[in-house]
Amino acid sequence: WLLVFFALPLVYQASTSVQTGSLEQGFEVTWHFQTYVDALRDYYPQFIRSLLYAGTATILCLLLGYPLAYL
């Protein structure tokens, strides 16, 4: 079940993300990863902010969770 509901959609999404083309001409897999580079360059501040929020939430959960677990 893990293969059907996790691995296959993940492989499909990964192959779709490296395709180029249009609806009229069709799509083909090009294996160019420039899309990822462009996305990271364009959304770098948002990416860093998301990592900071995730790190802050993790630290707060650990600081609250460990003492409460031993009560």
State the main characteristics.
elongated; single chain; 3 helices; mainly alpha; 71 residues; two-stranded antiparallel ribbon; 72% helix
Write down the Rg. 20 Å
Portion in strands: 5-15%
Characterize the largest beta sheet: strand count, sense, and whether it forms a barrel: 2 strands, antiparallel
Number of discrete helical segments: 3
- Number of E strands: 2
What is the overall pLDDT average? 91
**What form results from the Cα inertia axes?**
elongated
Give an account of the 3D structure.
By secondary structure, the chain is mainly alpha-helical. It folds into two domains: 1-31, no CATH class; 33-71. It is 72% helix and 11% strand. It has helices at residues 2-17, 34-42, 44-69, and strands spanning 19-22, 26-29. The longest helix is centred in the last third of the chain and has 26 residues, at 44-69. It is elongated and about 65 Å long. 0% of the residues are buried.
Offer a quick outline of the entry.
It contains 3 helices and 2 strands, in the order αββαα. The chain has helices spanning 2-17, 34-42, 44-69, and strands at residues 19-22, 26-29. Strand 1 and strand 2 form a beta hairpin.
